[in-house]
Amino acid sequence: MTINELIDYCRGRQLYIQTHNFPDPDAIASAFGLQKLFEHFGVESRLCYVGRIDRVNTRKMTELLGIKISSYDELDEEMSEDDYIICVDSQKGSGNIKDLKGNEIACIDHHPFIEVEGLVFHEVRYVGSCATIIASYFEKLEVEPDKATATALLYGLKNDTLNFTRGVQDEDIAMFSWLLKRCDKEMLSRLEHDSMEYTDLRAYGTAIQNIEVYGRLGIAMIPFSCPDALVATISDFILALDAVEVAVVYAKRIDGYKFSARSEVPGTINAGELLANVLAGYGDGGGHAFMAGGLIPAANVLKLGADPDAVLREKILEYVTENTKQ
Fold first, then answer.
1. Whole-model pTM over 0.90
2. Structural domains of the chain in order of their starting residue, each with its CATH number
3. I need a surface site. Which of 50, 137, 168, 322 has the fewest CB within 10 A?
4. Which of 79-83, 270-274, 286-290 comes out lowest in average pLDDT?
5. pLDDT tens digit string along 286-301?
Protein backbone atom coordinates (compact mmCIF):
# COMPACT_ATOMS: atom_id res chain seq x y z
CA MET A 1 0.00 0.00 0.00
CA THR A 2 1.24 3.51 -0.84
CA ILE A 3 0.66 6.68 1.17
CA ASN A 4 -1.96 7.68 -1.42
CA GLU A 5 -3.80 4.39 -0.85
CA LEU A 6 -3.58 4.83 2.92
CA ILE A 7 -5.24 8.23 2.64
CA ASP A 8 -8.09 6.71 0.59
CA TYR A 9 -8.33 3.79 3.02
CA CYS A 10 -9.01 6.22 5.88
CA ARG A 11 -11.62 8.21 4.01
CA GLY A 12 -14.96 8.35 5.83
CA ARG A 13 -13.57 6.93 9.10
CA GLN A 14 -12.87 8.57 12.44
CA LEU A 15 -9.07 8.81 12.35
CA TYR A 16 -6.56 9.43 15.13
CA ILE A 17 -2.84 10.03 14.68
CA GLN A 18 -1.00 8.86 17.80
CA THR A 19 2.52 9.83 18.85
CA HIS A 20 4.70 7.93 21.28
CA ASN A 21 4.12 8.58 24.98
CA PHE A 22 5.42 11.92 26.31
CA PRO A 23 5.93 13.23 22.74
CA ASP A 24 8.95 15.26 21.69
CA PRO A 25 9.13 17.83 18.85
CA ASP A 26 9.82 15.23 16.16
CA ALA A 27 6.80 13.14 17.16
CA ILE A 28 4.46 16.12 17.31
CA ALA A 29 5.79 17.60 14.06
CA SER A 30 5.34 14.27 12.30
CA ALA A 31 1.78 13.85 13.55
CA PHE A 32 0.91 17.45 12.64
CA GLY A 33 2.47 17.12 9.20
CA LEU A 34 0.61 13.89 8.49
CA GLN A 35 -2.64 15.47 9.67
CA LYS A 36 -2.15 18.40 7.28
CA LEU A 37 -1.30 16.05 4.39
CA PHE A 38 -4.46 14.02 4.94
CA GLU A 39 -6.46 17.24 5.32
CA HIS A 40 -5.27 18.38 1.89
CA PHE A 41 -7.01 15.31 0.42
CA GLY A 42 -10.20 15.83 2.44
CA VAL A 43 -9.49 13.38 5.28
CA GLU A 44 -9.85 14.81 8.79
CA SER A 45 -8.03 13.46 11.85
CA ARG A 46 -7.24 14.19 15.49
CA LEU A 47 -3.81 14.09 17.14
CA CYS A 48 -3.35 12.28 20.44
CA TYR A 49 -0.75 11.06 22.90
CA VAL A 50 -0.42 9.38 26.30
CA GLY A 51 1.42 11.03 29.18
CA ARG A 52 2.31 14.72 29.19
CA ILE A 53 3.88 17.35 26.98
CA ASP A 54 6.40 18.18 29.66
CA ARG A 55 9.16 20.22 28.02
CA VAL A 56 9.01 23.96 27.45
CA ASN A 57 10.22 23.72 23.84
CA THR A 58 7.51 21.19 22.95
CA ARG A 59 4.73 23.20 24.59
CA LYS A 60 6.05 26.33 22.90
CA MET A 61 5.96 24.55 19.55
CA THR A 62 2.29 23.57 19.88
CA GLU A 63 1.32 27.08 20.98
CA LEU A 64 3.24 29.08 18.37
CA LEU A 65 2.32 26.83 15.44
CA GLY A 66 -1.30 26.28 16.46
CA ILE A 67 -0.99 22.50 16.79
CA LYS A 68 -4.05 20.96 18.45
CA ILE A 69 -3.12 17.68 20.12
CA SER A 70 -5.05 15.98 22.90
CA SER A 71 -4.13 13.70 25.79
CA TYR A 72 -5.80 10.31 25.53
CA ASP A 73 -7.50 11.05 28.86
CA GLU A 74 -9.50 13.69 26.99
CA LEU A 75 -10.47 11.28 24.20
CA ASP A 76 -11.03 7.95 25.95
CA GLU A 77 -14.81 8.19 26.05
CA GLU A 78 -15.00 9.41 22.44
CA MET A 79 -12.79 6.76 20.85
CA SER A 80 -14.33 3.46 19.74
CA GLU A 81 -12.80 0.13 18.73
CA ASP A 82 -13.78 0.81 15.11
CA ASP A 83 -11.87 4.09 14.88
CA TYR A 84 -8.60 4.04 12.94
CA ILE A 85 -5.25 4.90 14.50
CA ILE A 86 -1.99 5.72 12.71
CA CYS A 87 1.09 5.59 14.94
CA VAL A 88 3.92 8.00 14.13
CA ASP A 89 7.50 8.07 15.44
CA SER A 90 6.81 4.77 17.18
CA GLN A 91 5.54 1.26 16.57
CA LYS A 92 3.03 -0.83 18.46
CA GLY A 93 4.94 -3.16 20.77
CA SER A 94 7.94 -0.86 21.09
CA GLY A 95 7.32 -0.17 24.79
CA ASN A 96 6.90 3.58 24.50
CA ILE A 97 3.41 3.76 23.00
CA LYS A 98 0.21 2.70 24.73
CA ASP A 99 -2.26 0.39 23.01
CA LEU A 100 -5.38 2.53 22.75
CA LYS A 101 -9.01 1.52 22.29
CA GLY A 102 -9.06 2.12 18.54
CA ASN A 103 -7.75 -0.05 15.72
CA GLU A 104 -4.10 0.58 14.80
CA ILE A 105 -4.02 0.24 11.03
CA ALA A 106 -0.70 1.88 10.18
CA CYS A 107 2.60 3.18 11.52
CA ILE A 108 5.29 5.47 10.19
CA ASP A 109 8.58 5.41 12.06
CA HIS A 110 12.36 5.74 11.88
CA HIS A 111 13.25 3.43 14.78
CA PRO A 112 14.32 -0.21 14.31
CA PHE A 113 11.63 -2.32 12.62
CA ILE A 114 9.19 -4.32 14.76
CA GLU A 115 7.08 -7.03 13.12
CA VAL A 116 3.41 -6.22 13.76
CA GLU A 117 0.39 -8.07 12.41
CA GLY A 118 -2.81 -6.46 11.21
CA LEU A 119 -1.39 -3.27 9.75
CA VAL A 120 -2.37 -2.15 6.27
CA PHE A 121 0.57 0.27 6.05
CA HIS A 122 3.90 -0.06 7.85
CA GLU A 123 6.79 2.15 6.75
CA VAL A 124 10.07 2.29 8.63
CA ARG A 125 13.01 4.23 7.20
CA TYR A 126 16.36 4.49 8.91
CA VAL A 127 16.68 8.26 8.79
CA GLY A 128 17.48 10.85 11.43
CA SER A 129 13.91 11.90 12.13
CA CYS A 130 10.36 10.82 11.47
CA ALA A 131 9.64 14.35 10.22
CA THR A 132 11.92 13.59 7.26
CA ILE A 133 9.59 10.78 6.17
CA ILE A 134 6.48 12.96 6.47
CA ALA A 135 8.15 15.78 4.52
CA SER A 136 9.04 13.30 1.76
CA TYR A 137 5.33 12.49 1.34
CA PHE A 138 4.58 16.16 0.65
CA GLU A 139 7.37 16.29 -1.91
CA LYS A 140 6.38 13.02 -3.58
CA LEU A 141 2.70 13.96 -3.84
CA GLU A 142 3.61 17.51 -4.94
CA VAL A 143 1.66 19.04 -2.05
CA GLU A 144 2.94 22.42 -0.84
CA PRO A 145 2.88 22.57 2.98
CA ASP A 146 1.85 25.83 4.59
CA LYS A 147 4.50 27.71 6.57
CA ALA A 148 3.40 26.32 9.96
CA THR A 149 3.62 22.74 8.71
CA ALA A 150 7.00 23.24 7.04
CA THR A 151 8.34 24.99 10.15
CA ALA A 152 7.11 22.22 12.45
CA LEU A 153 8.67 19.50 10.30
CA LEU A 154 11.97 21.37 10.01
CA TYR A 155 12.09 21.96 13.77
CA GLY A 156 11.33 18.30 14.47
CA LEU A 157 14.06 17.24 12.03
CA LYS A 158 16.67 19.55 13.58
CA ASN A 159 15.66 18.53 17.11
CA ASP A 160 15.86 14.77 16.62
CA THR A 161 19.18 14.93 14.76
CA LEU A 162 20.62 17.31 17.37
CA ASN A 163 21.16 19.95 14.69
CA PHE A 164 22.46 17.40 12.18
CA THR A 165 25.07 15.84 14.46
CA ARG A 166 23.24 12.56 15.16
CA GLY A 167 22.03 9.80 12.84
CA VAL A 168 21.86 12.07 9.79
CA GLN A 169 21.23 10.48 6.40
CA ASP A 170 21.25 11.96 2.89
CA GLU A 171 17.43 12.05 2.93
CA ASP A 172 17.45 14.23 6.06
CA ILE A 173 19.70 16.76 4.32
CA ALA A 174 17.53 16.73 1.20
CA MET A 175 14.34 17.30 3.21
CA PHE A 176 16.02 20.03 5.27
CA SER A 177 16.79 21.91 2.06
CA TRP A 178 13.26 21.36 0.74
CA LEU A 179 11.60 22.53 3.98
CA LEU A 180 13.93 25.50 4.50
CA LYS A 181 12.56 27.15 1.36
CA ARG A 182 9.01 26.83 2.71
CA CYS A 183 9.29 27.46 6.45
CA ASP A 184 8.86 30.62 8.54
CA LYS A 185 12.49 31.35 9.46
CA GLU A 186 11.56 33.94 12.08
CA MET A 187 9.26 31.45 13.77
CA LEU A 188 11.95 28.77 13.61
CA SER A 189 14.34 31.13 15.39
CA ARG A 190 11.77 31.77 18.13
CA LEU A 191 11.33 28.02 18.64
CA GLU A 192 15.05 27.48 19.04
CA HIS A 193 15.44 30.12 21.77
CA ASP A 194 14.27 30.00 25.41
CA SER A 195 14.01 26.22 25.30
CA MET A 196 15.02 25.58 28.93
CA GLU A 197 13.05 26.10 32.13
CA TYR A 198 14.69 27.33 35.31
CA THR A 199 13.81 24.07 37.07
CA ASP A 200 15.81 22.13 34.45
CA LEU A 201 19.00 23.58 35.91
CA ARG A 202 18.55 21.53 39.07
CA ALA A 203 18.56 18.30 37.05
CA TYR A 204 21.64 19.41 35.09
CA GLY A 205 23.43 20.37 38.29
CA THR A 206 22.64 17.06 39.98
CA ALA A 207 23.71 15.05 36.92
CA ILE A 208 27.03 16.92 36.84
CA GLN A 209 27.60 16.22 40.53
CA ASN A 210 26.75 12.52 40.17
CA ILE A 211 28.50 11.69 36.91
CA GLU A 212 30.99 8.84 37.04
CA VAL A 213 33.36 8.27 34.13
CA TYR A 214 34.86 4.86 33.37
CA GLY A 215 37.19 5.12 30.41
CA ARG A 216 34.97 6.58 27.66
CA LEU A 217 31.72 5.71 29.46
CA GLY A 218 29.81 8.32 31.47
CA ILE A 219 27.00 7.34 33.85
CA ALA A 220 24.86 9.89 35.69
CA MET A 221 21.99 9.36 38.12
CA ILE A 222 19.30 11.94 38.93
CA PRO A 223 17.65 11.08 42.27
CA PHE A 224 14.35 12.85 41.56
CA SER A 225 11.61 12.90 38.94
CA CYS A 226 12.48 14.31 35.51
CA PRO A 227 10.48 14.38 32.27
CA ASP A 228 11.52 11.85 29.62
CA ALA A 229 12.72 14.59 27.28
CA LEU A 230 14.88 16.18 29.97
CA VAL A 231 16.59 12.87 30.78
CA ALA A 232 17.33 12.51 27.06
CA THR A 233 18.63 16.08 26.81
CA ILE A 234 20.96 15.55 29.77
CA SER A 235 22.35 12.38 28.17
CA ASP A 236 23.18 14.50 25.09
CA PHE A 237 24.85 17.00 27.43
CA ILE A 238 26.96 14.28 29.09
CA LEU A 239 27.94 12.89 25.67
CA ALA A 240 29.26 16.33 24.72
CA LEU A 241 32.09 15.90 27.27
CA ASP A 242 35.41 15.34 25.53
CA ALA A 243 36.16 12.26 27.64
CA VAL A 244 32.82 10.52 26.95
CA GLU A 245 31.80 8.43 23.93
CA VAL A 246 28.92 6.54 25.59
CA ALA A 247 26.52 8.18 28.06
CA VAL A 248 23.83 6.60 30.22
CA VAL A 249 21.57 8.81 32.36
CA TYR A 250 18.69 7.66 34.53
CA ALA A 251 16.23 9.42 36.80
CA LYS A 252 14.42 7.95 39.80
CA ARG A 253 10.72 8.68 39.44
CA ILE A 254 7.44 7.56 40.98
CA ASP A 255 6.77 5.30 37.99
CA GLY A 256 10.25 3.73 38.19
CA TYR A 257 13.69 4.43 36.73
CA LYS A 258 13.73 6.28 33.40
CA PHE A 259 16.83 5.74 31.22
CA SER A 260 18.42 7.45 28.25
CA ALA A 261 21.56 6.28 26.45
CA ARG A 262 23.72 7.86 23.77
CA SER A 263 26.65 6.48 21.76
CA GLU A 264 29.18 8.20 19.53
CA VAL A 265 30.56 4.78 18.57
CA PRO A 266 27.40 2.94 17.43
CA GLY A 267 29.44 0.36 15.53
CA THR A 268 31.06 -0.71 18.80
CA ILE A 269 28.44 0.18 21.43
CA ASN A 270 24.87 0.13 20.16
CA ALA A 271 22.81 2.33 22.51
CA GLY A 272 19.57 0.45 21.84
CA GLU A 273 21.16 -2.94 22.46
CA LEU A 274 22.93 -1.60 25.55
CA LEU A 275 19.67 -0.65 27.27
CA ALA A 276 17.83 -3.72 25.99
CA ASN A 277 20.48 -5.93 27.60
CA VAL A 278 20.94 -3.95 30.81
CA LEU A 279 17.20 -3.71 31.49
CA ALA A 280 16.29 -7.26 30.44
CA GLY A 281 14.33 -8.94 33.21
CA TYR A 282 13.64 -5.62 34.94
CA GLY A 283 12.00 -3.43 32.30
CA ASP A 284 12.13 -2.45 28.65
CA GLY A 285 14.75 -0.60 26.67
CA GLY A 286 15.73 -0.04 23.07
CA GLY A 287 16.09 2.43 20.23
CA HIS A 288 18.68 3.43 17.64
CA ALA A 289 22.34 2.44 17.61
CA PHE A 290 23.24 5.99 18.68
CA MET A 291 20.30 6.89 20.97
CA ALA A 292 17.90 4.88 23.12
CA GLY A 293 15.51 5.01 26.06
CA GLY A 294 14.07 2.65 28.62
CA LEU A 295 12.14 2.22 31.85
CA ILE A 296 12.25 -0.07 34.86
CA PRO A 297 8.72 0.04 36.34
CA ALA A 298 8.51 0.92 40.03
CA ALA A 299 7.27 -2.59 40.87
CA ASN A 300 10.48 -4.10 39.44
CA VAL A 301 12.99 -1.80 41.12
CA LEU A 302 13.06 -4.10 44.17
CA LYS A 303 14.46 -6.85 41.93
CA LEU A 304 17.69 -4.83 41.77
CA GLY A 305 18.34 -5.50 45.46
CA ALA A 306 19.45 -3.25 48.30
CA ASP A 307 21.77 -1.12 46.15
CA PRO A 308 20.09 -0.62 42.74
CA ASP A 309 22.65 1.98 41.62
CA ALA A 310 25.56 -0.42 42.12
CA VAL A 311 23.77 -3.21 40.23
CA LEU A 312 22.90 -0.94 37.31
CA ARG A 313 26.39 0.53 37.15
CA GLU A 314 27.91 -2.98 37.11
CA LYS A 315 25.57 -4.18 34.35
CA ILE A 316 26.25 -1.12 32.20
CA LEU A 317 30.00 -1.43 32.69
CA GLU A 318 29.93 -5.14 31.93
CA TYR A 319 28.08 -4.61 28.65
CA VAL A 320 30.33 -1.77 27.51
CA THR A 321 33.53 -3.61 28.51
CA GLU A 322 32.54 -6.83 26.76
CA ASN A 323 31.48 -5.11 23.55
CA THR A 324 34.54 -2.85 23.47
CA LYS A 325 36.77 -5.96 23.48
CA GLN A 326 35.05 -7.41 20.39
1. no
2. 3-191 (3.90.1640.10), 200-325 (3.10.310.40)
3. 322
4. 286-290
5. 888 898 999 999 999 9
